[in-house]
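Appendix B. Chain record.
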Amino acid sequence: MEHLYFTTPFAFEGFVTTTFGQRTVSWLAAIPVSTAEVEYARQNSTEMLKDAFEQKDIDWFDLNRASIF
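Structure tokens predicted for this chain:
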């Protein structure tokens, strides 16, 4: 995987935006992605890439996984 895709942690339950005093804290996930997956997201949308990841049930943390495209 050549790139990182930063997004809300959609693959996991329980991560919600929280307010501490006057500060708002949101969770961020870094998912390793291939160049082909980046291009797919650029041409279609990050939402469609997310859906494709969920359909393929990828291992979110495997740097050596095969690209889904």
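Further analysis of this model is presented in Appendix C.
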